[in-house]
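For this section, I looked closely at a protein sequence along with its fold in token form, which I now present.
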Amino acid sequence: MDENIKGGILHQLSILIAQLAADGKLSWSDGVYLSQWYYEQKFKTNN
């Protein structure tokens, strides 16, 4: 996968998974917020 688009695709995929896991109780913007928060907690704080 092209490194220039890999991050964007993985970001969108994580949002879709969050929406599916929530049984439709999350909006797309909720999924974006949760994915961003998880990324920042998991990866940004460990570097």
Observations:
- The chain has one domain: 3-44.
- The longest helix spans residues 3-21.
- The mean pLDDT is 78.
